[in-house]
Amino acid sequence: MALNTSQGTLGDAAPSAGEFPNNHAFYVSEFIDIANPILLYDNFGTPKPIPPNSSNEIVFNKVLKLATLEGSPLTEGTIPTEQTFQMVRINQTINQFGGYARLTDRLHEESINNITTEFTQRMGEQGGESMNKVVRDDLLGGSNVRRYLNAATIDAITTDGMSATDFDFMYQAFKLEKVKPVRMLTNGSANIGTNPTRESYIVVCAVEAIPYIEALDDGLGKTFQSVESYAGQQAIWPNEHGKFKNFTFILDTESYIVSNAAATPQDINQALVFGQGAYHYTTIGSSDVELIIKPRGSAGTADPLNQLSSIGWKAKKGAVIVQDTYMFRYEFSIGDT
Q1: 3-state DSSP call for residue 136?
Q2: DSSP code of residue 152
Q3: Residue 150, class by beta-carbon neighbours within 10 Å (0-12 exposed, 13-18 middle, 19+ buried)?
Q4: What average pLDDT is seen over the chain?
Q5: Torsion over CA of 312, 256, 161 and 150, rounded to 10 degrees?
Q6: Nearest to 91 by CA among 50, 129, 134
Q7: Which among 42, 88, 126, 278 has most CB atoms closer than 10 A?
Q8: Can you tell me the distance from the alpha carbon of 214 to that of 210, in angstroms, rounded to the nearest whole number?
């Protein structure tokens, strides 16, 4: 990030609070408050931190399911066919990310407002959103894909919207794989206007998908259910919008959107649909994002007049799909956005 300097008027930067030790706890706390809610995918994956000094690569070993034997009854006195275990090894490398901005002494001395907190918040937002996208991008690489009305390619999607048929298909696929829902059944309550909610799988999709979510209707009486009508006192996740049948919709402002090449221009949302145990997310050490404040004068001879300070962040994070059949990449059109 470019060096920020004052030209006699207030510029685009504020000085670091690094010189004031009594403020350090405040700034770190503010940073966490901003960054953590943006880490949306951490709400549903299984955390698998890598201990420090243990490389930047994590390896998962998965033993594949054995076929059922309902068609192979035992014959008296005959040893059945021996089975063989098959193990798959999954490797994931965790990359490091980070950014910083330098701040000047003149802004510290001339600014009539203490805007350091605002700069710290912006750094927190950048770190949180960046790590959220890192996990999102890792999860988009799954092999299980369902496109609107089973279209063969993205370009073959020529109609906006979601389909109840698609959700029925994914639900049946999850049930065949015995995928556990993320949320269990919630009974109704005595509160007027509230309804019981089914067990459900998670759908993380774009904010632009709201009108299509709310229009879902299976033609048999099952329609969209908003969070306001949930059974009394049921906890909801951040950005939860509502439910349709056995699926809960979580809105992500960074949900991936691509354009197709059809005659009618369209934006295609690549939503993620999954149940319990579909993916793990990893960090190195105990923190997702580390805030780094360098006070003026900390650079020694590189800052001989104590003019420069900086605020930055650093993180190592990634995700890996450990059960491909527990997750779908659902692709549908949200029109022109």
Answers
A1: helix
A2: S
A3: exposed
A4: 82
A5: -160
A6: 50
A7: 278
A8: 6
Non-local (6+) Cβ contacts of 59 within 8 A are 89, 90, 91, 92
What are the residue ranges spanned by the domains of the chain? 10-63+88-337
The 10s digit of each residue's pLDDT in 259-316 is: 876 656 689 999 999 999 999 998 876 567 888 888 888 999 999 999 998 989 998 8
d(CA 30, CA 191): 37
Rounded Cα–Cα distance for residues 47 and 325 (Å): 19
Check if the beta carbon of residue 161 is closer than 8 Å to that of residue 212. Answer: yes
Separation of alpha carbons 106 and 300, rounded Å? 19
At 173-205, the pLDDT tens digits run: 999 999 999 987 665 555 555 566 679 999 999
**pTM value > 0.70:** yes
Q: Is the dihedral of CA 6, 8, 9, 10 positive or negative?
A: positive
| DSSP assignment string, 126-149 | HHHHHHHHHHHHHHTT-S-EEEGG
